[in-house]
Amino acid sequence: MLDRDGFRPNVGIILLNQKNQVFWGKRIRTHSWQFPQGGIDRGESPEQAMYRELHEEVGLQPEHVRIVARTRDWLRYEVPDRYIRRDARGHYKGQKQIWFLLQLTCQDWNLNLRATDHPEFDAWRWNDYWVPLDVVVEFKRGVYEMALTELARFLPRHDLHRNRFLRGGLRTRESDAHEAASLPGHDFELPPGATFEPDPQVGLNCEAQGGQRAG
Questions:
Q1: 95 Cβ neighbours under 8 A, 6+ residues apart
Q2: Which has the higher per-residue pLDDT, 157 or 62?
Q3: Who contacts 171 (Cβ-Cβ below 8 Å, separation ≥6)?
């Protein structure tokens, strides 16, 4: 499915752990590293495609993550002719992508590179947010830099409430501060229009799911 300019709709995924490190995958049987990504099928929304690719490439379900932010517009890259099948040359030009920033809400043992019989990665690691672009295939580097730069402002900020109190010269009772610190996710800055709804069952559900798979 190509648009009239020859670009295929696609999604990219930047998956964070609790330390703001990102999932960094080694493409199977290559020396290139990249983020999970994949095409949007006909009839899918970008969000639906993202969840499908999330499971196909790293084995996660929607309940294992939360959406922190996404890029506002399509980010495009062109694919050199030598990487394009001969029958597609002249029609296919490259990819246009919506990028999602996700937060892992379960333990990383939920990750599974063999969730399907056509794996994309054969190794992975947690990497600092600003990944080394020299190990990314050259024609994707510009889009990676644009996506990381646009989404960086949504990175979770630790001790966010505490810093606001200090800047505003406000003081709270010790009990109130303790209560705020105990709320899961209180240290995240949400994207515009988003709300936070704490769900104490998330961790329990993830542990239960992991236990069932382990058994």
A1: 7, 8, 10, 76, 77, 79
A2: 62
A3: 165
Same domain, 43 and 23: yes
Residues 100, 54 contacting (CB under 8 angstroms): no
- What are the backbone angles phi and psi of residue 14, rounded to the nearest 5°? -110, 110
Domains in the chain, number: 2
Q: What is the pLDDT of residues 55-73, one digit of tens each?
A: 999 999 999 999 999 999 9
Q: Interior CA angle at 133 toward 132 and 139, to 5°?
A: 165
Closest to 61 measured CA to CA, from 69, 73, 53? 53
To the nearest whole percent, how much of the chain has pLDDT over 70?
A: 73
> What SS3 class is residue 131?
coil
Residue 175 within any structural domain of the chain:
yes
Domain of residue 171 covers 160-214
For residue 1, the model assigns a pLDDT of 83
pLDDT in tens, 15-31: 999 999 999 999 999 99
Predicted TM-score (pTM) of this structure: 0.73
Q: What CATH number corresponds to the domain at position 109? A: 3.90.79.10
141 within 8 A of 133, measured Cβ to Cβ: yes
Cα–Cα dist 208/202, whole Å: 10
